[in-house]
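Comment thread on ticket #2218

A.B. wrote:
> Attaching the input chain for the structure job we discussed in standup.
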Amino acid sequence: MHDLQFYLDEFAKDDLMYVFLPIFLLALVIEVAIDRKQSRHLFEKQDTVASLWMTVFVVFVDILPKFLALIAFYFLHSISPLADIVQRQWWAWVLLFFLDDITYYCMHRANHEVRILWAGHVSHHSAVKMNFATALRQGVTERVHKYAFWLPLPLLGFDPMMIFLMMSINLFYQFWLHTELIDKLPLWFENVFNTPSHHRVHHASNIRYLDCNHAGVLIIWDKLFGTFSPEAEGEPPVYGLTTNITSYHPLHVATHEYSSILADVKRAETTADKLRYILKAPGWSHDGEDRRAKVLRHKAGLGLEHA
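C.D. wrote:
> Ran it. Output below, let me know if you need it in another format.
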C-alpha cells in the first residue's frame, strides 16, 4: 500500500468542487435577483440561512469520510483483477458514467427507505423552498455512509480519481435541478434525464410525490425500478417534510431526526421493534398509524408509473 503522503497528494487533486462552488454561488445570486425582480417569493430568509449553514457543515464533515474512502478505493483497485484492463479509455468513462449514476440512485433511494440513513439525508429535504440555496443544503451526516455505496467500482477496475471525478460531475449536474424558474423541458429530455420538474417532485411532501425520483442524471432508473412520478399539472409540489422542523438552528436542522429515532427506540417494547425503527422506512410505527410513503400512497389509491 501507499504511504500517507501519497494519499494526501491524491486527496488534494480532487479539487473540482472548488471550481464548482463559485459557479453555484453566482447562480444563486442571479436566482435571487430574478426572484426579487419578478416577486416570485422563492426564498425564505431563515430557510436560506439554514441551507448555507448546512453547506459549511458539509465542507468540514466530509473531509475524513472522503479521505478514508480514497484509501479504501486505492486498496480495492489494487486487488481488482480488472485494473489492468479498465484504464482511462473512452469506453471506460462511458461505462463509469452509467455505473456511477445507478450507484447514486441506489444510495439516494436507500437514504429515503432506511430511517437511520434518512436521518443523515433529511436536512436536505427540510427546506421549505426550492431554490439554488436548497441545492447547497446537502445532508450532513450522510457523508459518513455515502461512499460505501461506491466501493464495488474500484473492484471493477476503475481507478479512484476517475470515480471521484464522476461523482463530482454528477453532483454538479444536480445543482441546476433545484429551481422553480425552469418549467418542463422538451419531452425527449424529460423522458431520459433528471430535470427541475422531476426534482421538484422529489422534494415535495405531497403523498403522490413522496419518495419518488431519486435519480442523479438519468431519470430512467426511477422508471425502471418503479419510483417515478411526474409533476402533475393540478398538484403543485409542497416542499419540506410531512412534519416540518420546528427550529432553524443549524445543529437541529442537521441532527433532529436522530433524536426522533432515539425517542422511538426507547418507547419500543421489543428488540425487534427497536431495530425496525432504525432500519425500516421513515413513518413506520409499532403502535400507531403506518405513515411510510408506500402505505400512504396505497391508502390514497395512488400508483407510480413504470417505464
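A.B. wrote:
> Thanks. Noting for the ticket: The mean pLDDT is 94.
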